[in-house]
Amino acid sequence: MLIIAGSATIAQVDRDVYVAAHRDLVGRCRAAAGCLDAAISADPLDPRRVNIFERWESQEALDGWRAVADAPDTGIEFDADVQLYTVTDARPPFG
Question: Could you tell me the residue range of the domain that residue 31 belongs to?
Fold first, then answer.
């Protein structure tokens, strides 16, 4: 399993526009083969932060999505700290 997680910092005035512009992308991503979850969402505490999260069954599934993703070109500038994690174990966090 792969997890892509992190955040982007965007001008406060542009944050909600950026999130809304990616709504279709997130919906298509969630429907893609091998996608277990995806979100691009406004942070509830920081008005400049966008949280980014994806969970994939495999690198092949992620590569297939990237070939057709067609992310929107918003023209909005941002700084991002997003990483790809390879997961070797998963279990419920509370038990």
Answer: 2-86
Distance CA 11, CA 81 (A): 15
pTM: 0.93
How many domains is the chain built from?
1
Question: pLDDT-based confidence at 95, cuts 50/70/90?
Answer: confident
Q: Confirm if 3 and 54 have CB atoms less than 8 A apart.
A: yes
pLDDT category at 56 given cuts 50, 70, 90 is very high
Is 29 inside any structural domain?
A: yes
Give the per-residue pLDDT at 30.
98
Check: CB of residue 55 under 8 Å from CB of residue 37. yes
Q: What is the CATH number of the domain that holds 46?
A: 3.30.70.100
Q: What distance, in Å, lies between the first and last C-alpha atoms of the chain?
A: 21
Distance of CA 9 to the CA centre of its chain: 14
